[in-house]
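FORM 7B: Structural annotation worksheet

SECTION A. Query
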Amino acid sequence: MKKIYLLFTTALLFISNIARADEGMWLLSLLEKLNYKDMQAKGLRLTPEQLYSVNNSSLKDACIWFNGGCTGELISSEGLILTNHHCGYDAIAELSNVQDNILDNGFWAKTKSEERKPVTPMSITRVVRVDDVTEAVLAKLSGVAEKDRGIKLQEIFKELGKKATEGTHYEYTGREMFKGNAYYLFVMEKFTDIRLVGTPPQNIGKFGGETDNWMWPRHTGDFSMFRVYANKDNKPAEYSAENVPYKPLHYLPVSLKGVKEGDFAMIIGFPGRTNRYEFSQGVALATDVVDPNIVNLRAIRLEAWKEQMVMDEDTRLKLSSDYAGIANYWKYFDGEAEQLKRNKVYDKKTAEEKAFAKWAENRDEYKTLLYDIDQVYTMYKPYALQRIYLNECIFAPTINQLASFGIGLDELYTKRAAIQAAKEKSKEEKAKEIADIDGKIKTMSENYLKALNDVHYTERIKTADKKIFAGMLKMYYRNIPADQWPESFTKIASKIKNGNSDEVFAKYTDMVFEKSMFASKEKLTEFLKEPSHKKLLKDPAFMYVKSHRDNYMTRFKPKVDEFNAQSNALGRKYIKGLMEMHPNRTFYPDANSSQRLSYGTVQSYNPKDAVHYDYITTLEGVMEKYVPGDYEFSLPQKLIDLYNAKDYGRYKMENGRLPVAFLTNNDITGGNSGSPVMDANGHIIGLAFDGNWEAMSGNIHFDEKYKRTINVDIRYVLFLIEKVGGAQHIINEMTLVE
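SECTION B. Predicted structure
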């Protein structure tokens, strides 16, 4: 065990020219050992202590985990948060209605008392410190079977986390690195009183829509602003009118100096997931099977929703958040499959594995590893779509999402019946246990009834849902082998003649929506007030969901779990072998929603022969794309007027134009949305909000030639706040650096 830990540590401490500065999502606590000299050579002017410190304020304290899925940054002494528009989109959309449409019109609180509490509570989390617990965790995992490793790991993290946070209000989260060759404990401080300060209209914050998503040149003002509140002791507290703006340990000054090609740029954030050590078989599966199916399944939802959204403003507002979320990764998976092929990632992975196989020939620990992983994938591939189709197909229609509530209820009723039938229990024991279950049923129903108030299920949305339901039936029929269907679906499909499924699926869809209580909020409300197992088991939507879920849980989840356990174990061994094979290479761990730093430079690129993309875009490009009244490319009149007058104030460039977005070669992924882009002094110069189309294979393979990060220029953000939003008081709150 000691040998493995020392091997990992040694691999991390070697610096060589094999690791490129623009590749890698680095742990801040290791920067001084691993990257600092290289960062200095590229222009960094800060000390290691200014990047990461436990005892003093540092950049880590200003860069926060925003609502568990994005990144934000503190930019004032009064807890002002800057993040992406699309990160705040759900909160903005929930606060919008036809009468007070801040999603379309924008919003700026003139005073702190006007700042808005989100409908759904939000949170931000600050990293207090990072502890390397590799040696302790590996010692406790010694001898644990692979199938039990996950549960045991949670127990270990709980024990270590409790000790690390004892006597404090801090929380903790454990993170596995290098597929289980290293472990870190993150001690965190979580705040839950978050309020909306301001947002541009969505035709600025989302300018370009899905057409421009993942594309360059880009012209989106993708930002929104919130504020974090604390109690009078500056500690986390639930929402209260008595709370005051949080006083951060560190906040980022805002630079007005602008960017030029070659400038140093670093990004700190909470990147979600990468899989850079994936095997070639996994690349092939993603390219040929998984990604294309996700794209086709999501397209059904998007088409049905958009059909209704364009006809009615209220429907558009109600569906806008769901639509944006599904559309974002619909296009992502489409691009990933295309770029994995274009960048020949499968061939590159195969070449790496051939080199590993040659090195491993005479090493007993590794010589069969690649054969073993090939066998694991061969066994898994026939079932690879089962989990995808359960989540993206069966649970896609809103009616089925509502019906899935019944699964927990059904389990309680089933348990109740088992207790009632138990011969070894006394009447008193049965009565006590049944009363306990009845209480849980009552509580579950009451909680769901409360949640139902926030569910949008108007007639227009139901019309879209019926189209989605029927479309998903057809996709399941076409792409899942018949011998993998649940019995209920086999009965439906048995009515299909000559392969023409449309009529059969249309009739079945009509029947479900006519008879299911989950198609009517009124009927579902009645049921929740007086829940009945008998009524639940007669509901066609519930039984449809239950049959597919039971089919997956009994027949396919064990296979998926076995695949995950075997592939994880082999992946862990593969990375360990790579470290032995390349003792002078600096390895970085995959992203896993833990705080990371990437560094690089402002850079243009050449996407293909005879095409060059500049590193910066301007408001001129916004106006070139402008289409009056268009869903994706309209603009507010005030911005047009400012453009015509060339009234850009102090935010214009030397050539008189207003900057909008710029490119860097930083290594980021989902979760980095809203991350601050900082210069060599730690001053914010922009916000990361997207990647480029040509490098969408980046979660599996970093391509140094094409990989770029798309950032909104901080000068455009400030211009929009001051000139379009009229919120000079917000500008005054920041520390601006000329």
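SECTION C. Observations
The first strand starts at residue 26 and ends at 27. Residues 179 and 640 are 51 Å apart (CA to CA).

SECTION D. Sign-off
Analyst initials: ____
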